[in-house]
Amino acid sequence: MLNLFQGIRPLKRGGALRDAFAGVAFAAMNIPQALGYTRIAGMPVVTGLYSLLLPLLAFATFGSSRFLVVAADSATAAILRSGLAGMAPSASARYVALAGLVALLTAVFLLLGRLLKLGFVSDFLSQTVLVGFLTGIGFQVGIAVLGQMLGIQVTSRRSILQLVEISRGLPKVHLPTLAVTLAVLAFVFALRWSAPKVPGPMLAVILAIAASALWNFAGHGIAIIGPVVGGLPHFAMPDISWRDIPPLLSVAASCAVMILTQSAATSRVYAARHHDRLDENQDLVGLSAANAAAAFSGTFVVNGSPTQTAMVESVGSQSQIAQVATACVVALVLLFLTKPLQFLPQCVLGTLVFLVAIRLIKLRSLASIRRESPGEFALAVTTTIVVIVAGVEQGIILAMVLSLLRIVHHIYHPRTGVMVPDETSIWKLIPPDPGATTAPGLVMYRFGAALFYANASRFCDEVLRLVGPSPTNVRWVIIDGEAITNLDFSAARAVEELKKNLASMGVQFGFARLPWNTRADFDRHHLTVAIGPSWIFNRLHDAVDAFEALGAAPSATLARSSPTS
Prior knowledge:
The chain is mainly alpha-helical and about 575 residues long. Helices cover about 60% and strands about 5% of the residues. The chain is built from 23 helices and 8 strands. It has helices spanning about 15-40, 45-50, 55-60, 75-85, 95-115, 125-150, 160-170, 175-195, 200-215, 245-275, 280-295, 305-315, 320-335, 345-360, 365-370, 375-390, 390-410, 455-465, 490-505, 515-525, 525-530, 540-550, 555-560; strands spanning about 70, 305, 415-420, 425-430, 440-445, 475-480, 510, 535. The strands form 2 sheets. The chain has a 6-stranded mixed beta sheet with strand order 4-3-5-6-7-8. It has a two-stranded antiparallel ribbon with strand order 1-2. The longest helix has 29 residues, at about 15-40. It starts with 12 loop residues before the first helix and ends in a 6-residue tail after the last helix. About 50% of the residues are buried. Residues about 550-555 and about 560-565 have low confidence and may be disordered.
């Protein structure tokens, strides 16, 4: 399990220098963003710098991905803020201790996930609801910082109530604060349009600090962040008690699920893009180590960030050496450059967070989902609304539940139909309406899912509807079992009863194209004997040949259909 430095090895001098320079460029781009995440998380500003120090080094040591950036992230920061709301004042010593405990519990959950090989859990958040979830976070985070951007005092924790407060406070907008906000927005957007490779947020922070110190922004009523503690973080256990653990288990579990999902998806994309190796189990160890480092160094939960990973790739990085170099730059900032940070206007941080929130709102993805699948679009929008109205933690639980329910729906209500040959003698499906047949006297019925206790009655009812009331013209019913990947005890008994009902009506019943593992299920549940081994055909046209051999319905077209089936 301790296969170290996979994201760095093999280490070559030329590649190391290239990645080190990329890390310096990445630090210039990412430090302002990390400071902004502290506003989302409700943490002191300096903890944003801490999140780019030991957690980066921990993942570089224990992780597998050469590209994944594990640091503060908007999604997990929003989950943290939502979970700790009301438990302690934001940015207080008590709040920081609770945030450290959440990071430590998250590390434990991730390590348990590695030991129990639970990485598959990340697959249960569908892309659809994940888009809705991140869009909801984008709206929630954007709304949360509007007050800072406008100079309006906001006390509510719920997004809807925050909007109400902001709308009521619009006549009291602090014009100097608004002017600074608009200047930063215009500056960043102008650089994105004219010089996209220039780190606009970093330049905006530097210029804002200089202007604030020169023209005394604080004296004009523009709120600044105030003194920032300098020096490297102290490595210590969060100041908490055992009683603090139970209320935070659900928060940490939500963070762990989000980390599993987002990190796995991001690392897979970049490993595939660069034809690189990837050990997802080892990445779980790296993610656990990074969160443990976050807990012991006084910062908050960290995540594999898709936006930051894209940023580090864009500056030419090809290994975790870049993240090590970033950590070194951050250490220098902590040692020598924290004093000027006290002049940074809060509205500038709020504006940078707002820009992050805009990137999280996936309107194009939602539009694409709506065009292709209105049902999935409804799920995504529902998730978005729940995140905005109820909260992030509730949103991620709903996202998991909706994803699982969608899977259950597909299995319970699979695609079914009667198989008929088209004009090119290829099998196609027609709706399983009463009276539909493959040929006179023959029904070949396809069921598109595993047979289990919940959908077995649906399967039997649909077959009986196809046969119709006795007496019936149907003589054979053959089930195309290619998609029936397994069969449980309850389904076996239901199929056995269906066989008896059809026999009483004078209808022969069999299966074709059963997968080998499903044949094993048939044997174990004694269904092979109940149906009769001769009524389980290897191929569809074997069943057609047997039907025609009895003189039931001669059809040369059927006999030639789908020669590979």
